[in-house]
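Chapter summary example: a protein plus phenylalanine.
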Amino acid sequence: MKGKLEQIKKEFQKEIEAVKSLADLEILDNKYLGRKSGALTSAMKELKSLAKEEIPKMGQLANEVKIFLTGEFEKTKKKLKSQDQISGSFDPTLPGTEQPIGHLHLVSQAIREISSIFEHIGFQRARYPEVEWDYYAFEALNMPISHPARDEWETFFIDQKPINKKLGQRILTPHTSSGQVREMEKGILPIRMMNISKTYRRQIDASHSPMFHQFEGLVIDKDINITHLKGTIEYFVKRFFGENREIRLRPHHFQFTEPSFEVDISCGVCEGRGCKLCKEGWLELAGAGLVHPNVLKAGKIDPNKYSGFAFGWGVERSYLMKSGLNIDDIRLLYKNDLRVINQF
Ligand code: PHE
Protein backbone atom coordinates (compact mmCIF):
# COMPACT_ATOMS: atom_id res chain seq x y z
CA MET A 1 0.00 0.00 0.00
CA LYS A 2 2.76 2.36 0.92
CA GLY A 3 4.46 1.76 -2.41
CA LYS A 4 1.23 2.33 -4.24
CA LEU A 5 0.62 5.66 -2.59
CA GLU A 6 4.14 6.83 -3.27
CA GLN A 7 3.80 5.76 -6.86
CA ILE A 8 0.61 7.79 -7.22
CA LYS A 9 2.33 10.84 -5.79
CA LYS A 10 5.32 10.50 -8.06
CA GLU A 11 3.29 10.04 -11.22
CA PHE A 12 1.06 12.92 -10.28
CA GLN A 13 4.03 15.25 -9.80
CA LYS A 14 5.29 14.45 -13.25
CA GLU A 15 1.92 14.93 -14.86
CA ILE A 16 1.00 18.20 -13.17
CA GLU A 17 4.24 19.81 -14.28
CA ALA A 18 3.23 19.17 -17.88
CA VAL A 19 -0.21 20.71 -17.53
CA LYS A 20 -0.67 23.79 -19.76
CA SER A 21 -4.34 24.66 -19.51
CA LEU A 22 -7.18 24.76 -17.05
CA ALA A 23 -9.01 22.14 -19.11
CA ASP A 24 -6.05 19.74 -18.81
CA LEU A 25 -5.91 20.42 -15.12
CA GLU A 26 -9.50 19.38 -14.74
CA ILE A 27 -8.85 16.10 -16.54
CA LEU A 28 -5.95 15.45 -14.21
CA ASP A 29 -8.07 16.28 -11.20
CA ASN A 30 -10.55 13.69 -12.32
CA LYS A 31 -7.84 11.12 -12.98
CA TYR A 32 -6.53 11.26 -9.41
CA LEU A 33 -9.30 12.56 -7.24
CA GLY A 34 -12.41 11.68 -9.28
CA ARG A 35 -15.06 10.17 -7.06
CA LYS A 36 -15.64 6.99 -9.03
CA SER A 37 -12.32 5.97 -10.49
CA GLY A 38 -9.71 8.50 -9.36
CA ALA A 39 -6.40 6.75 -8.66
CA LEU A 40 -6.12 8.05 -5.13
CA THR A 41 -9.80 7.60 -4.42
CA SER A 42 -9.59 3.94 -5.42
CA ALA A 43 -6.46 3.39 -3.33
CA MET A 44 -8.26 4.87 -0.33
CA LYS A 45 -11.17 2.52 -0.86
CA GLU A 46 -8.72 -0.39 -0.63
CA LEU A 47 -7.61 0.68 2.85
CA LYS A 48 -10.52 -1.25 4.33
CA SER A 49 -9.12 -4.55 3.20
CA LEU A 50 -5.77 -4.07 4.97
CA ALA A 51 -4.79 -5.71 8.22
CA LYS A 52 -6.30 -3.89 11.18
CA GLU A 53 -3.07 -2.55 12.63
CA GLU A 54 -2.02 -1.22 9.20
CA ILE A 55 -5.14 0.88 8.65
CA PRO A 56 -4.35 3.95 10.82
CA LYS A 57 -0.82 4.33 9.48
CA MET A 58 -1.78 3.90 5.86
CA GLY A 59 -4.85 6.03 6.34
CA GLN A 60 -2.67 8.87 7.54
CA LEU A 61 -0.28 8.49 4.65
CA ALA A 62 -3.13 8.44 2.14
CA ASN A 63 -4.49 11.60 3.68
CA GLU A 64 -1.17 13.36 3.41
CA VAL A 65 -0.97 12.47 -0.26
CA LYS A 66 -4.47 13.80 -0.74
CA ILE A 67 -3.63 17.11 0.95
CA PHE A 68 -0.53 17.40 -1.19
CA LEU A 69 -2.48 16.75 -4.40
CA THR A 70 -5.23 19.22 -3.54
CA GLY A 71 -2.66 21.89 -2.68
CA GLU A 72 -0.83 21.39 -5.96
CA PHE A 73 -4.10 21.60 -7.91
CA GLU A 74 -4.97 24.92 -6.28
CA LYS A 75 -1.51 26.37 -6.88
CA THR A 76 -1.49 25.34 -10.52
CA LYS A 77 -5.00 26.64 -11.02
CA LYS A 78 -4.05 30.06 -9.70
CA LYS A 79 -0.92 30.15 -11.85
CA LEU A 80 -2.82 29.22 -14.99
CA LYS A 81 -5.53 31.78 -14.30
CA SER A 82 -3.10 34.67 -13.89
CA GLN A 83 -1.23 33.59 -16.99
CA ASP A 84 -4.52 33.66 -18.85
CA GLN A 85 -5.09 37.24 -17.84
CA ILE A 86 -1.61 38.38 -18.77
CA SER A 87 -1.61 36.69 -22.15
CA GLY A 88 -4.81 38.56 -22.95
CA SER A 89 -7.23 35.73 -23.26
CA PHE A 90 -9.79 38.23 -22.13
CA ASP A 91 -13.13 38.17 -23.89
CA PRO A 92 -14.34 41.70 -24.62
CA THR A 93 -17.76 40.47 -25.71
CA LEU A 94 -18.64 39.32 -22.21
CA PRO A 95 -20.81 41.76 -20.23
CA GLY A 96 -18.74 43.95 -17.88
CA THR A 97 -19.00 44.09 -14.13
CA GLU A 98 -21.32 46.89 -13.19
CA GLN A 99 -19.68 49.50 -10.99
CA PRO A 100 -21.87 50.83 -8.23
CA ILE A 101 -22.56 54.54 -8.74
CA GLY A 102 -23.36 56.78 -5.82
CA HIS A 103 -25.60 59.83 -5.87
CA LEU A 104 -26.04 63.06 -3.98
CA HIS A 105 -27.72 62.97 -0.62
CA LEU A 106 -31.29 64.16 -0.91
CA VAL A 107 -30.55 67.31 1.08
CA SER A 108 -27.75 68.18 -1.37
CA GLN A 109 -30.18 67.54 -4.22
CA ALA A 110 -32.68 69.91 -2.62
CA ILE A 111 -30.01 72.60 -2.08
CA ARG A 112 -28.98 72.44 -5.73
CA GLU A 113 -32.55 72.69 -6.89
CA ILE A 114 -33.32 75.63 -4.60
CA SER A 115 -30.22 77.60 -5.65
CA SER A 116 -30.91 77.00 -9.29
CA ILE A 117 -34.50 78.27 -8.98
CA PHE A 118 -33.32 81.49 -7.33
CA GLU A 119 -30.38 81.88 -9.68
CA HIS A 120 -32.90 82.37 -12.51
CA ILE A 121 -34.14 85.55 -10.88
CA GLY A 122 -30.73 86.94 -10.10
CA PHE A 123 -30.02 85.66 -6.59
CA GLN A 124 -26.39 84.95 -5.83
CA ARG A 125 -25.48 82.00 -3.68
CA ALA A 126 -23.71 82.81 -0.42
CA ARG A 127 -22.58 80.83 2.60
CA TYR A 128 -21.82 82.32 5.97
CA PRO A 129 -20.11 80.80 9.01
CA GLU A 130 -21.72 78.00 10.95
CA VAL A 131 -19.70 79.01 13.98
CA GLU A 132 -20.88 82.57 14.33
CA TRP A 133 -20.77 85.56 16.64
CA ASP A 134 -23.69 86.51 18.79
CA TYR A 135 -23.57 89.90 17.08
CA TYR A 136 -24.54 88.63 13.61
CA ALA A 137 -27.11 86.11 14.82
CA PHE A 138 -28.86 88.41 17.29
CA GLU A 139 -27.48 91.80 18.19
CA ALA A 140 -27.29 93.18 14.63
CA LEU A 141 -30.73 91.72 13.95
CA ASN A 142 -32.33 94.04 16.47
CA MET A 143 -32.24 91.52 19.31
CA PRO A 144 -30.05 93.08 21.99
CA ILE A 145 -28.51 90.92 24.68
CA SER A 146 -31.13 89.57 27.12
CA HIS A 147 -33.99 90.27 24.69
CA PRO A 148 -36.61 87.55 25.28
CA ALA A 149 -37.16 87.03 21.53
CA ARG A 150 -33.78 85.27 21.45
CA ASP A 151 -35.28 82.30 23.30
CA GLU A 152 -36.95 81.09 20.13
CA TRP A 153 -33.56 80.22 18.64
CA GLU A 154 -32.55 77.64 21.20
CA THR A 155 -28.89 78.33 20.74
CA PHE A 156 -25.70 76.34 21.31
CA PHE A 157 -23.01 78.50 22.90
CA ILE A 158 -19.32 77.84 22.46
CA ASP A 159 -17.39 77.69 25.69
CA GLN A 160 -14.92 80.44 24.90
CA LYS A 161 -14.36 83.96 26.17
CA PRO A 162 -15.60 86.66 23.74
CA ILE A 163 -12.73 88.27 21.84
CA ASN A 164 -14.41 91.64 21.83
CA LYS A 165 -17.44 93.34 23.20
CA LYS A 166 -19.17 94.07 19.92
CA LEU A 167 -19.06 90.49 18.55
CA GLY A 168 -19.89 88.90 21.90
CA GLN A 169 -20.13 85.19 22.51
CA ARG A 170 -19.31 82.56 19.90
CA ILE A 171 -22.28 80.35 19.01
CA LEU A 172 -23.42 77.84 16.43
CA THR A 173 -25.58 79.88 14.14
CA PRO A 174 -29.23 79.09 14.85
CA HIS A 175 -30.53 80.64 11.60
CA THR A 176 -29.28 81.80 8.21
CA SER A 177 -30.46 85.34 9.00
CA SER A 178 -26.99 85.76 10.52
CA GLY A 179 -25.82 86.21 6.93
CA GLN A 180 -27.92 89.36 6.41
CA VAL A 181 -25.65 91.92 8.03
CA ARG A 182 -22.54 90.06 6.84
CA GLU A 183 -23.81 90.45 3.28
CA MET A 184 -24.58 94.15 3.82
CA GLU A 185 -21.08 94.69 5.22
CA LYS A 186 -19.61 93.76 1.85
CA GLY A 187 -20.81 97.21 0.81
CA ILE A 188 -22.14 96.22 -2.60
CA LEU A 189 -25.66 97.32 -3.51
CA PRO A 190 -28.18 96.23 -4.64
CA ILE A 191 -28.24 92.86 -2.84
CA ARG A 192 -29.85 89.64 -4.01
CA MET A 193 -28.48 87.02 -1.65
CA MET A 194 -29.36 83.35 -1.33
CA ASN A 195 -27.62 82.03 1.77
CA ILE A 196 -27.98 78.27 2.20
CA SER A 197 -26.14 76.93 5.22
CA LYS A 198 -26.19 74.56 8.14
CA THR A 199 -27.97 75.80 11.22
CA TYR A 200 -28.08 74.44 14.76
CA ARG A 201 -30.65 74.43 17.51
CA ARG A 202 -30.87 72.66 20.80
CA GLN A 203 -33.88 70.56 19.88
CA ILE A 204 -34.14 66.94 18.98
CA ASP A 205 -37.27 64.90 18.34
CA ALA A 206 -39.04 63.26 15.40
CA SER A 207 -39.48 66.58 13.61
CA HIS A 208 -36.27 68.34 14.72
CA SER A 209 -32.64 67.54 14.18
CA PRO A 210 -30.07 69.62 16.12
CA MET A 211 -28.35 70.28 12.78
CA PHE A 212 -30.48 71.22 9.81
CA HIS A 213 -30.29 73.53 6.80
CA GLN A 214 -31.97 76.80 6.05
CA PHE A 215 -32.10 78.96 2.98
CA GLU A 216 -32.40 82.68 3.30
CA GLY A 217 -33.21 85.23 0.66
CA LEU A 218 -32.26 88.87 1.14
CA VAL A 219 -33.02 91.65 -1.32
CA ILE A 220 -31.97 95.27 -0.73
CA ASP A 221 -32.60 97.88 -3.34
CA LYS A 222 -34.41 101.18 -3.85
CA ASP A 223 -38.21 101.10 -3.48
CA ILE A 224 -38.55 97.48 -2.41
CA ASN A 225 -41.98 96.66 -0.97
CA ILE A 226 -44.18 93.74 0.05
CA THR A 227 -45.29 92.97 -3.51
CA HIS A 228 -41.68 92.08 -4.38
CA LEU A 229 -41.52 89.75 -1.40
CA LYS A 230 -44.80 88.12 -2.30
CA GLY A 231 -43.91 87.77 -5.98
CA THR A 232 -40.57 86.18 -5.19
CA ILE A 233 -41.99 83.62 -2.80
CA GLU A 234 -44.82 82.84 -5.18
CA TYR A 235 -42.34 82.29 -8.01
CA PHE A 236 -40.31 79.91 -5.86
CA VAL A 237 -43.31 78.00 -4.56
CA LYS A 238 -44.71 77.40 -8.05
CA ARG A 239 -41.33 76.24 -9.39
CA PHE A 240 -40.45 74.08 -6.43
CA PHE A 241 -43.79 72.70 -5.30
CA GLY A 242 -45.89 72.98 -8.47
CA GLU A 243 -48.03 75.46 -10.44
CA ASN A 244 -51.18 74.53 -8.54
CA ARG A 245 -49.85 75.68 -5.15
CA GLU A 246 -50.91 79.02 -3.65
CA ILE A 247 -49.34 81.09 -0.89
CA ARG A 248 -50.70 83.31 1.83
CA LEU A 249 -48.94 85.73 4.16
CA ARG A 250 -50.03 85.70 7.79
CA PRO A 251 -49.02 88.58 10.11
CA HIS A 252 -46.36 87.54 12.60
CA HIS A 253 -43.53 89.06 14.62
CA PHE A 254 -39.79 88.96 14.11
CA GLN A 255 -37.44 91.52 15.62
CA PHE A 256 -35.50 91.91 12.37
CA THR A 257 -38.37 92.46 9.94
CA GLU A 258 -41.21 94.98 10.01
CA PRO A 259 -43.84 94.08 9.02
CA SER A 260 -43.28 90.37 9.51
CA PHE A 261 -45.15 87.39 8.14
CA GLU A 262 -45.39 83.69 8.24
CA VAL A 263 -45.81 82.19 4.79
CA ASP A 264 -48.22 79.31 4.29
CA ILE A 265 -48.64 77.24 1.15
CA SER A 266 -51.80 75.50 0.10
CA CYS A 267 -51.78 71.82 0.99
CA GLY A 268 -50.68 69.53 -1.83
CA VAL A 269 -52.80 66.62 -0.66
CA CYS A 270 -56.25 68.26 -0.57
CA GLU A 271 -55.38 71.30 -2.73
CA GLY A 272 -56.51 73.70 -0.04
CA ARG A 273 -59.87 72.16 0.83
CA GLY A 274 -58.72 70.90 4.25
CA CYS A 275 -57.62 67.39 5.19
CA LYS A 276 -56.01 65.32 7.94
CA LEU A 277 -52.52 66.57 7.11
CA CYS A 278 -53.18 70.31 6.99
CA LYS A 279 -56.48 70.69 8.87
CA GLU A 280 -57.50 73.95 7.17
CA GLY A 281 -55.94 73.67 3.73
CA TRP A 282 -52.68 75.49 4.51
CA LEU A 283 -49.22 74.36 5.60
CA GLU A 284 -46.81 76.64 7.43
CA LEU A 285 -43.65 77.17 5.45
CA ALA A 286 -41.50 80.15 6.31
CA GLY A 287 -40.74 83.39 8.07
CA ALA A 288 -40.46 86.58 6.04
CA GLY A 289 -40.80 90.33 6.15
CA LEU A 290 -39.42 93.72 5.19
CA VAL A 291 -35.95 94.33 6.62
CA HIS A 292 -36.12 96.37 9.83
CA PRO A 293 -34.46 99.84 9.57
CA ASN A 294 -32.21 98.97 12.56
CA VAL A 295 -30.86 95.99 10.64
CA LEU A 296 -30.12 98.17 7.61
CA LYS A 297 -28.33 100.61 9.90
CA ALA A 298 -26.24 97.79 11.40
CA GLY A 299 -25.23 96.94 7.83
CA LYS A 300 -24.32 100.61 7.15
CA ILE A 301 -27.18 101.08 4.70
CA ASP A 302 -29.32 104.22 4.83
CA PRO A 303 -32.95 103.17 5.54
CA ASN A 304 -34.15 106.43 3.98
CA LYS A 305 -32.68 105.47 0.64
CA TYR A 306 -32.93 101.71 0.61
CA SER A 307 -35.41 99.09 1.69
CA GLY A 308 -35.48 95.34 1.43
CA PHE A 309 -37.13 92.04 2.21
CA ALA A 310 -35.94 88.77 3.68
CA PHE A 311 -37.32 85.29 4.02
CA GLY A 312 -35.94 82.08 5.39
CA TRP A 313 -36.92 78.50 5.98
CA GLY A 314 -35.79 74.93 6.37
CA VAL A 315 -34.43 72.90 3.47
CA GLU A 316 -35.37 69.51 4.94
CA ARG A 317 -38.88 70.61 5.76
CA SER A 318 -39.43 72.02 2.27
CA TYR A 319 -38.08 68.90 0.65
CA LEU A 320 -40.34 66.64 2.66
CA MET A 321 -43.32 68.84 1.88
CA LYS A 322 -42.54 68.80 -1.83
CA SER A 323 -42.03 65.12 -2.22
CA GLY A 324 -45.09 64.21 -0.19
CA LEU A 325 -42.74 61.83 1.62
CA ASN A 326 -44.20 60.56 4.76
CA ILE A 327 -41.00 60.30 6.76
CA ASP A 328 -42.13 60.11 10.33
CA ASP A 329 -38.69 61.01 11.72
CA ILE A 330 -36.59 63.78 10.19
CA ARG A 331 -33.46 62.37 11.88
CA LEU A 332 -33.57 59.48 9.41
CA LEU A 333 -32.09 61.88 6.87
CA TYR A 334 -28.83 61.96 8.83
CA LYS A 335 -28.49 58.38 9.98
CA ASN A 336 -26.71 57.33 6.78
CA ASP A 337 -28.75 54.17 6.54
CA LEU A 338 -28.38 53.11 2.92
CA ARG A 339 -31.79 51.48 2.94
CA VAL A 340 -33.23 55.00 3.30
CA ILE A 341 -30.68 56.99 1.31
CA ASN A 342 -30.79 54.71 -1.74
CA GLN A 343 -34.47 55.40 -2.24
CA PHE A 344 -33.79 58.93 -3.51
N1 PHE B 1 -34.66 83.43 10.64
C1 PHE B 1 -36.05 83.17 10.90
C2 PHE B 1 -36.18 81.80 11.56
O1 PHE B 1 -35.23 81.08 11.63
C3 PHE B 1 -36.86 83.19 9.64
C4 PHE B 1 -36.89 84.54 8.97
C5 PHE B 1 -35.97 84.83 7.99
C6 PHE B 1 -37.85 85.48 9.30
C7 PHE B 1 -36.00 86.08 7.37
C8 PHE B 1 -37.89 86.71 8.69
C9 PHE B 1 -36.96 87.00 7.71
O2 PHE B 1 -37.25 81.45 12.03
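Key point: The CA atoms of residues 116 and 316 lie 17 Å apart.
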